[in-house]
Each structure stands twice: as structure tokens, then as C-alpha cells.
Specification:
The protein is mainly beta. The protein has 2 helices and 8 strands, in the order αβαβββββββ. Helix content is 10%, strand content 63%. It has an 8-stranded antiparallel beta barrel with strand order 1-2-3-4-5-6-7-8. It starts with 5 loop residues before the first helix and ends in a 7-residue tail after the last strand.
């Protein structure tokens, strides 16, 4: 449904391989506060049945920020913000796509390679211009499933690699100061591939 660029994937593979080798002898401590910041590749596709015509997936890039707190080494909560500039393929000009996630993270392991699963409620926002140059904004929400891993290069620093898939709908359209809401929104699916650096400031403390 949603494609990612080959060059991004090759870079990710290279960095993950490097991180795994560099962290082979590290021991992570994932309990406590953590923050991650890095690059993001986003893709979005509207439900063709809802829009009444064929639509292509649209892609772009941007940044992401994740903050969270692990109550135990394996269970925690997180807040994530993602912003990307999407190359328009269907109609109009390029536009901005934003996500805000609030959810739970489950660490599957806590060694030098620390994979995780995520479940989150997500707010969606797309902002740009229509074919007539008028400002338009779409708002909505959905449910996000995430999978990723921290590759520790020291006790406190790790390379963060993650994929978040969101399914939901846009149910509010805003033209200037006028907002129109509809219970029967337009279905939307997004994918976000994140690559950055994570910091665990409490790691190593007794």
C-alpha cells in the first residue's frame, strides 16, 4: 500500500549493522526517562472508496521527537511528535503532515539490542493549499501500531530505529476560519520510518 524509498532503506540497513556490531558488548538500562530525536520518512494514502477515485501513496521526509518514561525496564508510556513535508501526487501542491502519538511501549528485551512494540492513540493533521491556492487543513485521528529497536552504543546512547503504522480518518476540514466536521470521515493510512538517536539519562545510575 505504502512504499518507502530504496535509498533510505539501504542507509538504515547499513546503520543498523554498524550499531549492532558496535553494541555487541553493551548492557542497556531502559528504566526511567528517555528521549529520541531524528529523521523521518512518511507516507500517506487516502481510502479510495471514501474519496471516490484512485489515489496514489504520497511520500515525504521530516523529523520526529519521542519522549517517554519506562516504569519498569520493559513497560512504559511515550509521547511522540512527527512532522513531514509530503510531495503531492494526486492534487494540489506539497503539504505538511503531522502526527501526535500518546501510547504505551513494551520492551521485548533490555540488552545491547532492545526491541520494542508500541500501541498509541494518534492525532493527524495535514495542511496545505487546494488547486485554487486556498489554505486547507484536514484533522482527524487513529490508532497506531509500532515496532522498533534501540541499538545501544553505550549505556546511555542508542541508535533508534522504528516503524509506526497508523489507520484512522480525517473528519474535520478547515478552510481559513471555517471548520466543517463530519462523523463519516475519509479513511487514511500512514507509515512512518524513524531513524535517530535515543538518550537514557538514568542509565548507569544505581
Amino acid at each position: 500500500m505504502i512504499r518507502m524509498r530504496l535509498t533510505v532503506m539501504l542507509a538504515l540497513i547499513a546503520l543498523v549493522t554498524f550499531a549492532a556490531n558496535a553494541s555487541a558488548q553493551r548492557v542497556s538500562r531502559t528504566k526511567g526517562f528517555h528521549i529520541a530525536l531524528g529523521l523521518n520518512a512518511s507516507a500517506i494514502q487516502l481510502d479510495e472508496d471514501d474519496v471516490g477515485e484512485d489515489t496514489d501513496a504520497e511520500n515525504g521526509g521530516g523529523l520526529y521527537l519521542t519522549t517517554g518514561y519506562n516504569f519498569t525496564p520493559r513497560i512504559g508510556a511515550f509521547l511522540a511528535l512527527t512532522g513531514a513535508r509530503i510531495d503531492a501526487e494526486n492534487v494540489g501542491d506539497d503539504y505538511n503532515l503531522g502526527h501526535a502519538d500518546l501510547g504505551a511501549r513494551f520492551m521485548l528485551a533490555t540488552g545491547s539490542i532492545a526491541p520494542y512494540l508500541e500501541l498509541a492513540l494518534t492525532g493527524l493533521n495535514a495542511r496545505g493549499e487546494d488547486d485554487q491556492g486556498r489554505d486547507i487543513e484536514l484533522r482527524g485521528g487513529g490508532l497506531t501500531l509500532g515496532i522498533g529497536s534501540n541499538f545501544f552504543v553505550s549505556q546511555r546512547f542508542a541508535i533508534d530505529l522504528g516503524l509506526r503504522l497508523t489507520g484512522g480518518e480525517f473528519n474535520t476540514v478547515k478552510f481559513g476560519d471555517i471548520s466543517i466536521s463530519n462523523d463519516d470521515g475519509v479513511g487514511v493510512g500512514t507509515a512512518r520510518l524513524n531513524l535517530g538517536v535515543a538518550f537514557y539519562p538514568s542509565a548507569g545510575r544505581r
